[in-house]
Amino acid sequence: VRFSNCSNMTTYDGAGGTGWTNGAPTIITSTVISADYDTNTIGASIEACDITVTNNATLTIAADDYLLVNGNITINAGASLIVEHTGSVVQQNNNAIVTNNGTINVLVTSPVLQTRDFMVMGVPTSSELRNDVFATAFLVLDFEPNNFIPNNAVPDGGTNFADDNGDFYNTITGATPINPGEGYVVRPQDS
Which residues contact 90 (CB under 8 A, 6 or more apart)? Predict the structure, then answer.
């Protein structure tokens, strides 16, 4: 489905010189990726009006590169979008949608932390589960800020992260859905 503001169309088919049938895409170009395209090895970051990955192709957004799309992103059956660690995908239009009938993988490399250290992580997409996103994490917590009441047992002058009755956080396990755009406290390892 073409986004209404798109004026031109180009397809990356991997053939010849640049592989683009109508020149490299711009933010006003409807774009089709029908052959494997890796921003690190084939070309640069991509800007498009809308984009469709088809024909069992894989679009890889490499580290420090980006896919900037004004409108819709469509991944057809058999096709893939891979976003490597520190790569970015940005949709500018608030009404734009992502249609995923193929595979979308966002790769994040988490650092090795000291015991009891944590980081706050989230996911940008819906339909994700705790075991899929944070499969190897030791502990994942979801917080309910409205439930936080400082624990009076913490001495004066101490930083009070302790809730009075333990209902400030929930341990997320198993097949619990992960909400898009919400931060979760993640402890990657227990030692």
Answer: 66, 67, 68, 69
